[in-house]
Specification:
The complex is a heterodimer. Chain A is mainly α. Chain A has 14 helices and 2 strands; from the N terminus they run ααββαααααααααααα. Chain B has 2 domains: 215 residues, Periplasmic binding protein-like II (D-Maltodextrin-Binding Protein, domain 2, 3-Layer(aba) Sandwich); 208 residues, Periplasmic binding protein-like II (D-Maltodextrin-Binding Protein, domain 2, 3-Layer(aba) Sandwich), CATH 3.40.190.10. Classes of the chains: A mainly alpha, B alpha+beta.
């Protein structure tokens, strides 16, 4: 077989075409993951060679108060923020599902935040908005004069500044809902109307059940995204005050790249692997719940 | 004979020393520092001037804030892509020497390529590593802890802020300002050992950190935390939550010089003398005038110290060590360079340069003579600085000090000052032990 013949084979061509992905996957995913698994059993400060210490990092993590705090904060953010975001996306999608001349403009403009929402510029803008003398307080002050210079970055409210930001980025979920709404068979609504169902009943008995697969998909995707959120916590609050907005990823980052002193890359790697296990468990839980509430044809 | 020998040897020195940057070919040199807007501008100006002199040499500038700088440099270090020259800190450079990231400068000093003859011996020594007695970093300027305050406000209220004020005097002034103007006082960054070191020195300890652990006792630290708790209870000291609503890490947005309402303003900043220039720049934009004095502390004259700071080092990742040395030499010894640098990193360590730039810099920067005066005052009202920090100290900052400061400044904390004092000593010593 000549090279030309060999190269012309279908499976060889397939591998060649997927080579960029395979290369990227190996270099930026698989190899780093294997390295991080190894480092999680090491004491490693980046600047000096790693020394193997067995399970010590994992044992220390369970005695680490900041770890539990970060885990609580992240779960709170994911479990409150994600449903809110999905519900909000659904509501806006329902409103925008009517076809008028201007809805495309609204759709595009509501989608924008989810493109730029994770950016540094928005994070800084968000901080400015919620400052004691910021725009949000100025607007609220018109309706509630008592609110003057309310501190949004307090221990119990700071996390809500971040939750509001994530809810604001409902665009991608909204788009998915919009396309799912379009696929619902019109005849079902006509049949429901003939049976005397009002709009409200139609929504509960037709729209919502048929959307459950989409809701499920959005929930899984957004939950994972929430667990991996980083920029907001780093730039808007830097985990303050008293670690009440310390996202898990920020804690991992701080251990790996501390602002002072030596890196604890081994410890950070162990934290990252625990995160992987947690996300897998949450996702498995969601999939397990699927048969209880998701409607499938 | 002796004369000719002398001439001969000096000729040898200058022949070796005369590395001509023009002969280096077209190169881009990496230069990284942490700092602020003013430092970014002056450093760029000085390096641009070098490019004017030697058009074949260009610079890749990398300016970060303190918090981001070390994280980035550590990752560069692991991939052997550190910039040719990097700014270093007195407290942390030993850690970088141990990791083998810094170039040994002693051979270049011996060859004359790097001329440190105009720097006081005591300052050159601050860049010497304890591991082998060689020079790894060169001090760009002298500094001291400096308390900056809103002089416009204190003048309005008829308050005199004394030098070497005690903690009680500070509390009294802060209370008065809070009652009459509604302006509070913000303490240090949460993750900094500086305030505790200063407190410990006021009590007579030379340093906070020793090789095996901290020098202070739990009882002594109880006093430290009690002060903070009292200040927060009385309302004039910024609480943890209030600190979270302001940006104290960026000088231009520090509550001393930024904020539309008295309730988000601080009348003072616990800073260093080299930051005074940037603070004054921001204050001018804000329409206020600043004053400068020592940090409040009982026995302030014992606690205070002159800090050789803002070191420059050459990294082992450099491809052009001779050129990097020439640039370092330029930054330390060149009058034009230091005029452009505006003594922003502190009074130049080279005494000839300091004298030469005094007039020109004073004309453009009204703050310069004020800083010189303040450092003169500190020289007479201070004791010798503590030795460079042991390598575990940075981890104490991030893992122990930050959490405990957050508790002490929280009016609803469940801790007592005594418990915080104990946690500090136990926590720090356990970090030291497990490092």
């Amino acid at each position: 077989m000549s090279f030309r013949q060999w190269f012309g084979q279908e499976h060889v061509a397939g591998y060649v075409f997927s080579l960029p992905f395979i290369f990227g996957f190996l270099m930026f995913m698989l190899i780093p993951m294997i390295m991080s698994l190894y480092f999680s059993f090491c004491k490693y400060d980046i600047q000096n060679p790693a020394t193997f210490i067995g399970l010590k990092n994992y044992i220390n993590i369970f005695h680490d108060k900041a770890f539990w705090k970060a885990l609580r904060v992240t779960c709170y953010y994911a479990l409150i923020g994600t449903p809110l975001k999905v519900i909000f996306a659904l509501i806006v999608a329902l409103i925008l599902s009517r076809n008028t001349l201007v809805t495309p403009i609204y759709r595009a403009s509501y989608y924008l935040p989810s493109i730029i929402g994770g950016s540094v510029a928005v994070a800084i803008l968000w901080r400015r908005l919620f400052e004691p003398t910021g725009t949000i307080n100025a607007i609220l002050g018109i309706f509630f004069p008592g609110i003057k210079n309310f501190n949004w970055f307090g221990e119990s409210t700071a996390i809500w500044v971040l939750i509001i930001l994530t809810v604001w980025q409902f665009g991608s979920s909204m788009l998915i809902f919009l396309s799912a709404l379009k696929q619902i068979n019109r005849e079902l609504y006509e049949a429901a109307m003939v049976d005397g169902a009002n709009k409200w009943k139609q929504f509960w008995r037709v729209t919502l059940p048929l959307l459950t697969p989409t809701i499920f998909f959005n929930l899984v995707q957004q939950t994972i995204n929430s667990f991996l959120a980083f920029t907001q916590s780093k730039l808007i609050t830097d985990g303050q005050p008293k670690d009440s907005t310390l996202f898990y990823t920020l804690y991992v980052y701080r251990k790996a790249f501390p602002s002072m002193g030596k890196s604890q890359m081994g410890y950070a790697s162990a934290l990252a692997w625990i995160m992987l296990v947690i996300i897998s468990l949450v996702t498995a839980l969601l999939f397990w719940s699927r048969s209880k509430w998701v409607y499938e044809d | 004979m002796a004369l000719s020998l002398l001439v001969c040897s000096s000729a040898v020195v200058s022949a070796e020393a005369a590395f001509d940057p023009a002969s280096a070919g077209d190169v881009a040199v990496g230069f990284a520092w942490w700092g602020n807007q003013v430092r970014d501008e002056v450093t760029k100006a000085a390096l641009d001037h070098f490019t004017e002199l030697y058009p074949n040499v260009t610079f890749n500038l990398n300016a970060q804030t303190w918090n981001d700088y070390w994280a980035q440099m550590t990752s560069f270090s692991s991939s052997d892509t550190l910039p040719d020259l990097m700014q270093q800190d007195y407290a942390y450079f030993e850690q970088w020497v141990e990791a083998g990231d810094l170039l040994d400068l002693t051979p270049y000093i011996e060859s004359g390529a790097l001329d440190l003859s105009k720097l006081p011996e005591s300052i050159v020594e601050t860049g010497v590593s304890a591991t082998d007695g060689h020079v790894y970093a060169v001090c760009a300027g002298m500094n001291a802890p400096a308390f900056s305050y809103n002089k416009t406000l204190t003048d309005e209220l008829g308050i005199e802020v004394p030098d070497n004020m005690s903690w009680d005097q500070f509390v009294e002034i802060s209370r008065k300002i809070y009652e009459e103007a509604g302006v509070g006082a913000i303490f240090h960054n949460f993750n900094s050992e500086n305030p505790i070191t200063f407190y410990a020195r006021g009590l007579g300890h030379e340093a906070l950190f020793e090789a095996e652990g901290v020098t202070v006792s739990a009882e002594e630290m109880e006093g430290y935390y009690q002060r903070l708790m009292d200040g927060v209870q009385e309302g004039w000291l910024f609480s943890t939550e209030k600190c979270a609503s302001v940006d104290m890490a960026t000088i231009s947005q520090h509550p001393l010089v930024y904020g539309a309402d008295p309730s988000v303003r601080s009348w003072c900043a616990f800073a260093f003398s080299n930051q005074y220039l940037a603070f004054c720049d921001a204050a001018e934009a804000d329409g206020i005038e600043l004053g400068i004095t020592s940090w409040p502390e009982d026995n302030a004259a014992t606690a205070n110290y002159l800090k050789p700071s803002q070191f420059f080092s050459i990294t082992t990742d450099t491809q052009n060590p001779d050129l990097a040395v020439a640039i370092l030499n330029y930054m330390i010894n060149d009058v034009d360079a230091n005029t452009l640098l505006r003594a922003e990193r502190g009074i130049p360590a080279n005494s000839d340069v300091a004298a030469a730039i005094a007039d020109t810099v004073s004309q453009t920067d009204k703050t310069y003579p004020i800083i010189v005066n303040y450092l003169d005052f500190v020289a007479d009202n201070s004791t010798a600085i503590f030795p460079p920090l042991p390598s575990y100290a940075g981890t104490v900052n991030t893992d122990v000090i930050e959490a405990l400061s957050s508790e002490a400044l929280d009016p609803n904390t469940s801790y007592t000052a005594a418990e915080l004092g104990e946690e500090f000593v136990d926590g720090s010593n356990s970090v030291a032990e497990n490092f």
